[in-house]
Each structure stands twice: as C-alpha cells, then as structure tokens.
C-alpha cells in the first residue's frame, strides 16, 4: 500500500516562540525565537544535545506549558492565548502523547489503559472500550487486550501507549524519546509503527529522539541548539525514498 497523500495543511505552527525559566537575575532562555511549521501527514524528528531546548519545545507544542512570548497555532487555534483549563481540554482532545516511560497504569489492562483518555473525557465505557479495541488492532495488539502492563514486553507496552495516543483521533501525536527504553528490535518495531501511521493513516507525528537512526526515518530532521533551530531539512540517509518523499 502506498503512502497516503493529503492536501498540504499546517497542523501546528510555532511563531517566534520563546520560553524563559526563572525570575532571578539569571533567567534561563530555554527556547529563543523559534519558528516551526508542521504539515498534516508529516513525521518530524527533533534532535539536539542535552539542554538544547528540544524537550521544552515539545512541551510547548503539546500545550503542556505556555510560551513566554510568541504564538503556537494548533489547527489555527492560538494555544498560547488559552487559559489552563482550555489548554487542558485541547490537549486531551487533539494531541496524543507517547512517553519514554510508557506511563501505563499497572492495574489496568491494555484495553482499559487505551480507553482511559476517552472515559476521562466523558465517553461512555462501552463506546470507549470499543474504540480502544480498534486502536489496539491498529497497532497489532488486539490479542493482548486483557493483559496487564507487567505481562507485556517493553515494545508491546509502548505500542499500547501509541494506541492510547491514537484513540482520541488526534490532530497531532507527540513522542518524547519513544524508543529510549527499548532494545534494538523493539525500537525498530515502534519506529516502523509510527512511520506506517504517517504513511498509511495520514497521522502527523513529531518526536524527540537521541537515536539518529530513528530520526532518519522522519520526513524532516529539526536540529535544536541553544534554544534555536540550527537546521531543518530532509534526512540525508539512504533509507527507502518513500520515507523522505515530500
């Protein structure tokens, strides 16, 4: 099956965004005047040294925190102008998150973990579980629906976490070091899954990673250094050309 084509449309845009921490005489400028546009159906990898500002940028794109100045437009809505309650609602309904540590609740089964975001948003339990099963099917784990996280491998737990991110049908999936806790084989499986979601489902994915091999699977690699974008281009790796085709 070929890559899904969709009309060019900006899902999220950061416009002259800054983030300063601390009110002391020596404030820390974690993000300094960043401008970034991400289109629908695009996979973007953000890389950079520790302390470069890449994780801070991801929290700003994910509406977890508000910028000190500038705008962040998610589907045209200025996230930076929203209060905490409105930002939480937008985040819960339009942004899926995948974390390095999986963040699954140990007492809930796979399907219950996936259904949880829907139930927290008021979806009836029966409907939430049905949608959760469909999301698990998408990541190849429906047969594990009744397994607790402790009964799953690290790679399977991360795929459950991906299903949980997808179940809300988000505009944007943000992944923070999604392969950081995985062995090489599981890392490749999760990266393949994210790539397939972009290519065949038209999902938009932004991930922070230290793994250059994971970054090379993206359509673009954005390098952040000293709180600014140092480089933004398609990867130069010789992987399958469909992965960088624009």
Task: Report on the architecture of this protein.
The chain has one domain (42-52, 83-245): Rossmann fold, CATH 3.40.50. The strands form two sheets. The protein has a six-stranded mixed sheet. Strands 2-1-4-5 form a four-stranded antiparallel sheet, with helices on one face. Residues 237-246 have low confidence and may be disordered. It is an alpha/beta fold and 246 residues long. Strand 9 and strand 10 form a beta hairpin. The protein has helices at residues 54-61, 84-94, 110-120, 125-138, 154-166, 184-201, 212-215; strands at 10-21, 28-39, 43-47, 69-74, 77-78, 95-99, 172-176, 205-208, 220-225, 228-233. The chain is 32% helix and 26% strand. The chain has seven helices and ten strands.
The poorly predicted ranges are 237-246
Q: Termini, distance in Å?
A: 17 Å
β-sheet strand percentage: 25-35%
Tell me the number of helical segments per DSSP (H or I, 4 or more residues long). Answer: 7
Query: What's the name of the CATH homologous superfamily?
Result: P-loop containing nucleotide triphosphate hydrolases
Shape: globular
Question: Which percent bin holds the helix content?
Answer: 25-40%
Give the C-alpha Rg. Answer: 18 Å
Count of structural domains: 1
Output mean pLDDT.
91
CATH second-level architecture: 3-Layer(aba) Sandwich
Largest sheet: 6 strands, mixed
Biggest sheet: strands side by side, in what order? 6-7-8-3-9-10
CATH topology, anyone? Rossmann fold
Class of secondary structure makeup: alpha/beta
* Helix-strand pattern: EEEHEEHEHHHEHEHEE
Q: Let me know the number of strands.
A: 10
Assign the CATH class.
Alpha Beta
């Amino acid at each position: 099956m070929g890559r899904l084509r969709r009309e060019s449309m900006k899902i999220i845009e950061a416009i002259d965004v800054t983030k300063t921490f601390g009110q002391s005489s020596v404030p820390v400028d974690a993000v300094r005047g960043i401008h970034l546009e991400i289109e629908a159906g695009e996979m973007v990898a953000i890389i950079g040294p520790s302390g470069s500002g890449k994780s801070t940028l991801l929290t700003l794109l994910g509406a977890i925190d508000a910028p000190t100045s500038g705008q962040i437009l998610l589907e045209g809505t200025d996230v930076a102008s929203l209060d905490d309650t409105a930002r939480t609602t937008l985040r819960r309904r339009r942004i899926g998150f995948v974390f390095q540590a999986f963040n699954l609740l140990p007492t809930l089964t796979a399907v219950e973990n996936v259904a949880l975001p829907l139930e927290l948003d008021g979806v009836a339990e029966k409907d939430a579980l049905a949608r959760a099963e469909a999301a698990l099917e998408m990541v190849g784990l429906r047969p594990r629906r009744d397994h607790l996280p402790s009964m799953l491998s690290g790679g399977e737990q991360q795929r459950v976490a991906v299903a949980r991110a997808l179940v809300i049908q988000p505009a944007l999936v943000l992944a923070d070091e999604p392969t950081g806790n995985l062995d090489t084989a599981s890392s490749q499986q999760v990266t393949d899954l994210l790539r397939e979601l972009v290519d065949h489902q038209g999902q938009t994915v932004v991930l922070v990673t230290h793994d250059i091999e994971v970054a090379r699977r993206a359509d673009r690699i954005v390098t952040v250094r000293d709180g600014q974008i140092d480089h933004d281009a398609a990867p130069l790796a010789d992987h399958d050309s469909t992965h960088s085709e624009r």
